[in-house]
Amino acid sequence: MMTLKLKLKPGLIYTFAVFLTACNAPTATPTPPMLNLQTRIAATLASIPTAANLTPRAPTGTPQPAQSATPESAVATPTPDPAASASEYVVQPGDTLSIIAQKFNTSMAAIQLLNNIDDARLVRSGQRLKIPTAKLAPDENTFWVVYVVQPNETFGEIALRFGVQLNDLLRVNKITNPALVRAGQRLIIPLRAPA
Description:
By secondary structure, this protein is an alpha+beta fold.
C-alpha cells in the first residue's frame, strides 16, 4: 500500500476538512478512498452554477444609479467631443503646440486632451493631431494648457504656481469640491498669456 504525505498549513487543513464534510454524500458502491474523493469533488464542482446556466432574475424595486468610488467632481475634466473634431493636422517643422492652437483658434489644452498629450512641449514634426472644433469654455484662449497633478499638491498650490485664480481653475475643470484633488489628475490651467 502506498502512503501519500502532504504538508498543509493549519488554515488549509480546516478549509479542506470543511470541503470534505460538505462533499460527504453516500455512494452507491464502495470505492477506494482516493477515487471516492475525486468523485465527490467532481460532483461538487458540477453543482456550482455558471454564467451559462444562471437564469436572470427580474429586477425588484426602483433602480438606483451606480455609485462610483471616486466622486465625479474630483475627476471630471472637460474634454472636447472627438466626434466634433472635423480636422486633422500634420505637425510641420518649427511648429509648437501654441502655434498650432493659434492657427486653429483653439487652446493647447483642447488639443492635448483630444490627443492624450500630457506635456505641451512634446510635439514632433510629422505627428498627426486631431484639432477640436468645440470650445472647452466660452473664455478659452490659446494659452490654456494641461497639467498633471503631482503627489501631495493642492488646487490652491497649483493655482498659485501658475498665477491663476483658484475659482477659475475650479470652474474650468468643473470641480465642485477642491478637497478631492488626486495625483495623476489632468487639469486645464486657464492661462491668459504664455507661461
